[in-house]
Amino acid sequence: MAGVGASGFRAVVLAGDGVVARFPGLVCVARCPDPEPVARLLEVCAAAAGDEPGRVLARRLAAWLAGVDGPPADLVFGTIAAAGASRAVFLSGDVEARLGDLGLSGADSAAWLDRLVPAGTGEARLALPGVADGPPPALLDLR
């Protein structure tokens, strides 16, 4: 699970078998039995990273998922990225995001979930299935 603080991006990592990545302006969680699709996902995230990567990242992720060289169905991932006065949430597969009181799930979408949420909604969390939700552990520095 990764958490995003209301004033910016801060990641809190809890035990699990996925990958948590933090880039300028975004956080990502992912899981796949094959490490290659995760590596490609992280390349897409790194290329889009910056002050407000949310919209660009969403377009690149959608193009990758829909393309002929798209990842396998067992890649599950989610991103939350800065997008002006909003946060861009992108979920693919059985991954969940919680932004304040708003709960979102990629499992509820036929292809993927792509949503802009006002930045002032409070703490944001991304979680893969099987990760216990609860208070975050001590702050970990992922710079």
TrEMBL record:
This is Uncharacterized protein.
